[in-house]
Amino acid sequence: MAISFFVQGAIFALLVTRIPALQDRYGISDGLLPLFLAAVPILAGVGSVGTEHLVKRMRPGLVLRAVQPVVSVALLAAGSGTTVWQLAAALAVFGLTVGALDASMNMLGVSLQRAYGRSIMLGFHGAYSLGGIAGASLAWVGAHWDLPLPTLYAPLVATLVPVALIAGRWYVDRQGDHPADNQADHQADDHGAAVSMRALLPLCLVMAFAYIGDSTVSNWSAKYLEDVLHSSEQLATVPYNVYMVTTLLGRSFGDFGVRRFGAVAVVRAGALLAGAGFAVVAAAPGPWVGMGGFTLLGLGLCVLVPQTFAAAGRLFPGASDAAVARLNIFNYVGFLIGSPLVGALGGAWNYRAAMLVPMALVLVTIRYARSFTPVPAGYGDGHERPRTVDVG
């Protein structure tokens, strides 16, 4: 499982850190760029919805094995085309399959955490961060040596695709481990285990706010450093790498924090750190202070998403796959809102002020931290609503 998270982190980092290079390659204007950035999360949301229905008939591990190579090839196609329609087609395939990939990967992570009986989701997402570091580092090499995108992408894709396929042989939901392998069990699990969107809503909001913050870093950090803080093109690739490094550090120790202090305390601390990070970025006089802000952002945001998936699995133990798939949609809602919102505010006003919007939304997460309290035993059968849920 950790290998799949690593591969996804590397592929995604190589896409988002080279957005300026993709923009130059295809001659995309600043006004048109947000439309391309918005199309990917919209299609990813469609892919996540489809995965909720697909896993009723086949195991999440099979879905993951099928779509992860396609995501990698779509990245290579995006960097290898010559016309805008080719980029649009590659990003469309990337979006649809990355939605299925994210959903199935987190379904497996949640089910494995339930089997272990302790917090391990932060560790899986830590592997994603490690992959992001590797991808961002390669992006820096590409910018430093002015490598064409196909030259940068092709060796990584050629390496990661077989690695992911081999790792998929050891996924935890092999034959007999998933309800889809036994129709009677599947029907029994569906009975009385429907996902209540009212109960899931606080977690959906936290997921959206976290990804508004994350998408601001992934889609705009390079452009912010280069255009606002006047860094070099090489240095502009560093903030995402710094962000991923601190995300990795936070997630490496985050599971221990959850076991020691509880998910509620960890989520509150993460939201406060992320808010402080956005404030530093908005006020930074130069690129090095700006990177300090992105450091705080990584330490703060890193705990929110894994804990949100884990909380959904606890909330609906009899329908965790459906809960994760629906929650995962708000990953893309966050990206869909965050990228165009920051771009529109930055273009109409200025990018410094635009950074204050995700800051405010991430801080709202503190209001919903009680939703991460462990669910009482027996909840999740569809007949009881946990007292910790606050949707007001």
TrEMBL record:
PANTHER family (UniProt xref): BYPASS OF STOP CODON PROTEIN 6, INNER MEMBRANE PROTEIN YBJJ
Subcellular location: Membrane
Keywords on record: Membrane, Transmembrane, Transmembrane helix
Source organism superkingdom: Bacteria
Protein name (database record): MFS transporter
Membrane topology of the entry: Multi-pass membrane protein
Organism: Streptomyces mordarskii
Transmembrane feature ranges: 31-50, 62-81, 87-108, 120-140, 152-172, 193-212, 232-249, 261-282, 288-312, 324-345
SUPFAM superfamilies xrefs: MFS general substrate transporter
Pfam families (alphabetical): MFS_1
